């Protein structure tokens, strides 16, 4: 069995009832082989980013302890997306509406640059909608090659991000 690794997963969606979808996705991620969700952030309403002419997103972060290698964890996350009706279609373009988006943000302290997988997520340190829930779950976390997540968050505006009750 592979060693136990702490990984962080970003969740988001803006189609249907995204808050319910994210709560259900936490349970689905917890059901992946050799993987246990150890912490989840609250849910946050965030303005659409990239393509702004769409509904606001609901975002969150899950911390998991996993025995899965990074590529297998990513494959499991993509399976969860598909189970919720997400189809990654390049013809639709990036940053469009989606029922569920799961991103492998961090995998231990590893730096991975392989086809289809880059960890830390290449834009993690630039996106308040990911950093706000990440810092909630792991306040002192360091992003390999970048520095502290809370310092990255402090350097950007996050006033449009609202915690859901």
UniProtKB/TrEMBL annotation:
<comment type="pathway">
    <text>Cofactor biosynthesis; tetrahydrofolate biosynthesis; 2-amino-4-hydroxy-6-hydroxymethyl-7,8-dihydropteridine diphosphate from 7,8-dihydroneopterin triphosphate: step 4/4.</text>
</comment>
<comment type="similarity">
    <text>Belongs to the HPPK family.</text>
</comment>
<keyword id="KW-0067">ATP-binding</keyword>
<protein>
    <recommendedName>
        <fullName>2-amino-4-hydroxy-6-hydroxymethyldihydropteridine pyrophosphokinase</fullName>
        <ecNumber>2.7.6.3</ecNumber>
    </recommendedName>
</protein>
<keyword id="KW-0547">Nucleotide-binding</keyword>
<keyword id="KW-0808">Transferase</keyword>
<keyword id="KW-0289">Folate biosynthesis</keyword>
<dbReference type="InterPro" id="IPR000550">
    <property type="entry name" value="Hppk"/>
</dbReference>
<comment type="function">
    <text>Catalyzes the transfer of pyrophosphate from adenosine triphosphate (ATP) to 6-hydroxymethyl-7,8-dihydropterin, an enzymatic step in folate biosynthesis pathway.</text>
</comment>
<feature type="domain" description="7,8-dihydro-6-hydroxymethylpterin-pyrophosphokinase">
    <location>
        <begin position="94"/>
        <end position="105"/>
    </location>
</feature>
<dbReference type="Pfam" id="PF01288">
    <property type="entry name" value="HPPK"/>
</dbReference>
<keyword id="KW-0418">Kinase</keyword>
<dbReference type="InterPro" id="IPR035907">
    <property type="entry name" value="Hppk_sf"/>
</dbReference>
